[in-house]
């Protein structure tokens, strides 16, 4: 199940992708963007965004740049006034009612296109800027057309052209329902594509909107300025969290690290443990850490936090080594945090985290507590390693070493297991109640009635009593 369909695949349609995203949760202030082309492999070198990820403006620019630079110079933009993911789920036959599908031409175009890209959740500010972005990339002015005038137009394959067709949308009208209007827009798309096909013109088409048709605003549960209030100073607002550590290579950001607390302690023989509080040195405006010697590529990432001299330890470093591998069983790439290394005074302590710290390559990894001593996720490589003298504690730890698209983490894979203590308590309580109920029913079934009764007209029953 994927958000983005990079190449045409049998059985994978636009509406199966969009309905999958809708089932995960409705998103407000987001507009779908659908791109397809008569050329193949336009986005082969790019990875799909993570499940549930909202595509930002910079990411959309990357996808559009690949389509323009690698695809045909004739770009067709179907720009609807409003569009949301709900329109596809309500009127696209997503529930199996293909006869009620309002987008048959669009679905057929995606299935037949050599390459296509479906972005179900794009920030609407970015989607509204698509005409300007295409105009900038193509270095030409847009031509606004009507479907009837396209037959008289003759395009030159070697010259860049941007053809824009505005499509209407309304949620309520006296003469036409939203489904009928969407069906009419789909017929316009089919007519335009048939004209281009008859003229054998290679093209790249984009279908999106200027703003969402349905916006769901979040309403705060807190009720302010109601009822009696105390005469006291208002509480101070909570401080904003510090930004993550970000390492950039020649292409852009490629490693992100964040933690609410980074603490280590070293137990030296014959002495008190030395505590290292590295949070303020790593994050925030007073950070003094250096990322020299860090590196990253498609399969290996190495984040080096160089603190210099700390607590009398010379050249103190904390190193995170991550690797990405393809696992045929899951049919996707996963990354693991193989090593967490501490270098100090020419010595090295190594922890292994590959058994517990892992996530899909498109995701980040998050865990509320990563330690080496209590429910450890980090364990020394051997009993003779220097790591046995170190205790590591990371709180609200999050790291991503691959497919970083900006200063924000991708969707996080959390370390919390399915059977939490609350779930275990509920299961045990339910099992205890079932056992009590079963025992009670068994006792009731064992009750037997008397086989003889007193007859008021006859002699009384005599029950002999013996010792």
Characterization of the model:
This protein is an alpha+beta fold. It is 22% helix and 30% strand. The chain has helices at 14-24, 57-70, 85-91, 104-112, 124-127, 130-138, 178-198, 279-282, 421-445, and strands spanning 30-37, 74-82, 115-123, 142-144, 161-167, 204-211, 245-248, 253-258, 261-266, 274-277, 295-296, 300-310, 313-327, 332-344, 347-352, 358-360, 364-371, 379-380, 390-400, 412-414. Strands 7, 8, 9, 10, 17, 19 and 20 form a seven-stranded mixed beta sheet that branches. α4 runs parallel beside α7 (178-198). The longest helix has 25 residues, at 421-445. The protein is flat and about 115 Å long. Residues 1-15, 19-27 and 217-227 have low confidence and may be disordered.
Topology:
Elements: H1 14-24, E1 30-37, H2 57-70, E2 74-82, H3 85-91, H4 104-112, E3 115-123, H5 124-127, H6 130-138, E4 142-144, E5 161-167, H7 178-198, E6 204-211, E7 245-248, E8 253-258, E9 261-266, E10 274-277, H8 279-282, E11 295-296, E12 300-310, E13 313-327, E14 332-344, E15 347-352, E16 358-360, E17 364-371, E18 379-380, E19 390-400, E20 412-414, H9 421-445
Parallel strand pairs: 2-5, 2-6, 4-5, 17-20
Antiparallel strand pairs: 1-3, 1-6, 7-8, 8-19, 9-10, 9-19, 11-12, 12-13, 13-14, 14-15, 14-16, 15-18, 17-19
Helix pairs in contact: 1-3, 2-6, 4-7
